[in-house]
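Question (not urgent): is this output format expected?
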Amino acid sequence: MNIITKQNTSARRIAAVGMYDGVHAGHRFLIDYLGVEARSRGLVPAVVTFSRHPLTVVRPLEAPALLNTLEQRVSLLAEAGAQDIILLSFNESLRRMSAKEFLGALKRKFAIDALVLGFNNHFGHDHPDGMDHYRTIGEQVGVEVIAAPEYRGPVAPVSSSAIRRHLMEGRPEEAARMLGSNYTLRGKVINGKHVGRTLGFPTANLELPAASLLIPLAGVYAAYVTTPDGVRRKAVVNVGYRPTVDGADENRQQQLSIEAHIMDFVGYIYDEEIAVEFVKYLRPEKAFGSTSKLASQITEDIASARKVLK
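Got this back:
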């Protein structure tokens, strides 16, 4: 894998452009097709992607929460088969480019001789009208524009927005089918109030990820947690505002938390990084009349999670 952030014409390339948030089944299908076309033409398969979502510049209030950090996305793109990853900063200058200017820049700066255009994909502020128009523009600048077939696999139709919707509506298993793996948040374990420990269920409090990342629907989940020793362990994870412990005063600023009770695990992991995989939504978060009732519910949650994760 080569990460390219400035002009580089060291190889002749064929590319596909996109945000690739989540690097889901549809993205991987496109990159597979890119590889086929690359081999038939003797070109290097490359993806052109952006360090931030274009909507953060175009319509900031509509910019979605993301499914990956940039580092995770680059790693997944490489695993999917992209040999070169051309990373652009989406800014006002790029936003104002016409499709012809953008294709010309790709040709001039990155030696891109061919472009695979995915189903329903488009670029350029002038919004060319369909594949034939893109092909004509490509001929003008010396870039062959190739239409990729539509993904019709077992999870079609698939999109990053559909995955976000599944996660925000408590369907992580449906998101996982589209992603090809469980939706995962990674972060450092930080100190909490140690209430779980006093109840007999110690929890690892995950440092909240970057504000740009999507946090699933509040509630209790069956999950896997990969601890710092690299072992993937069963867990119950609570996403929410801990109403039993912290109260539910609407006039008070409440702090979202992500807490994982890692089953059958004893160890000191503060300031260490863990990965939390969301497998199944068990129940909404709710306030209990006492901590003893909360402890009883947690016992039931653990039993439910064990059945899911067996």
